[in-house]
Amino acid sequence: MVFDTVILSGTIVTESDVFDADIGIHNGKIVTICESGSIEVGDAKVIDASGLHLFPGLVDVHVHFNEPGRDLWEGFETGSKSLAAGGVTTFFDMPLNSNPPTTTKERFLEKQQLANEKSIIDYRLWGGLVPDNIERLEDLHKEGAIGFKAFMSECGTDDFQHADNDTLFKGMERIAELESILALHAESNEMINYLTDKAQKEKRLSIRDYCNSRPVLSELEAVERVVRYAELTGCKLHIVHVSSKRVIERIKEAKEQGIDVTAETCPHYLCLSIEEFEKIGPTAKCAPPLRERQEVEGLWNSLKKGDIDIISSDHSPSPPDLKAQESIFEVWGGIAGCQNTLHVLLTEGYHKRGVPLSKIAEVTALNPAKRFGLFPKKGSIRIGSDADLTLIQLNETFVLKAEDLKYRHKISPYIGKTFIGKTKYTLSRGQCVFEEVDEKTSV
Ligand SMILES: [Zn+2]
User: Ranges for the Amidohydrolase-related domain (predicted)?
Assistant: First the structure.
């Protein structure tokens, strides 16, 4: 057999197993997985992976790269380089906060062209469901939208309208007909608008006041409502960025009732609580907000039990001035974190809480690839799959510095955090898209 690249003596992590092997890559695909030391290297490029773990390239189903229109916030080039540095080899870009948002075929094609030119890894695009585009969903679907995204509450910009109940219901009926899927930002608009107004009128403006204005109950109410709509319309659902175990359990109940729904959470809900938010400040503002410490532990328990399907970043960066508003209520609500998803999971999950490596591979690669129809091309290390891989030194410690970040703006709540588990190489369809610069500075 002829190989373009061979990866020797690594430890392979799949959703079901961890084992030592050599890997042979040809034309961007994995063509051989064999016992360490048994591969015929020939003229292939050699990557020595001794002491390293090979994970399937992550599939991040939830990023906002904001291009076109707000590429000063991020963009496909900086965004995809950040992901590659964190072991992500496929991303799905959200229909907002690009401006205009991706709610028509024309916008979709325009964004696709930009992503084609600029992204260094594979990608798919979400279409948006907004009050005036139900007639356009079919076009978006035909162009290859991975699914549709809607907001049940206001999203923070004026150009992507949230879906009222009427839009939601009719949109779900249409999306079910198209056999596509709806991703939902599930917070009750009525509850959070009321609580936000009240807090502001009463001059309760602390970080904790902000968090209390968007309670877990508002997520729960929105999820309750939408699973009923799913029951009636048959629309497949993916609930994004769930912040609480209670919501995960409600989704699990819906699954048990036969509703086709999956739950996503993000590294920040597994790593940061309100106390950290108070220390870090506006950089850690997101919506739904960070929760109490026991909620963080609750989510880890849900993950261990297999109740969380997907972990993605919800990378939602902004320029520094939008994070520097006087009131926390006015600050941009989005966390920039997509470069460190795997680092958070290895540090907080594998090292601190004993979460198996296979579980991490499952929720970051296998499950997202399966849920959105990319498996077996993506999502696992197996013969015939794309050679999308990330190589990790599992026990190497590093402190994240602003200059390590490849984002357009070097802002992240994880700056200064000590991570255990360092990315050495990332391969996208066999091509090296990230290689650690060997600084030889031992920690
Ligand atoms: Zn988002």
Answer: 54-400
Q: Is 141 annotated as a binding residue?
A: no
Q: Say which DSSP state 284 is in.
A: G
Q: How many domains does the chain have?
A: 1
Ligand 1 centre to CA of 155 (Å) is: 9
Query: 216 alpha carbon to ligand 1 midpoint, in Å?
Result: 17
Query: Distance from the CA of 351 to the center of ligand 1, in angstroms?
Result: 28
Which pLDDT score, from 0 to 100, does residue 439 have? Answer: 55
Quick check: 442 pLDDT over 80? no
- Confidence check: pLDDT of 441 > 90: no
Give the pLDDT confidence of 288-317 residue by residue, as tens digits.
999 999 999 999 999 999 999 999 999 999
Q: How far is the CA of 290 from the centre of ligand 1 (A)?
A: 14
Instruction: Say how many Å lie between the CA of residue 341 and the centre of ligand 1.
Output: 15
Kindly state whether residue 113 falls inside one of the protein's structural domains.
yes
304 annotated as belonging to a binding site for a ligand: no
Beta-strand relationship, 148-151 and 127-128? parallel
| 56 Cα: distance to centroid of ligand 1 (angstroms) | 23
Report yes or no on 395 lying in a domain: no
| Residue 204, domain extent | 57-372
The answer to whether 62 is annotated as binding is: yes
In this structure, what CATH number is given to the domain that contains residue 236? 3.20.20.140
Q: How far is CA 83 from CA 59, 108, 339, in A?
A: 10, 22, 5
- C-alpha 91 – ligand 1 centre gap (Å): 13
pLDDT at residue 438, rounded to an integer: 64
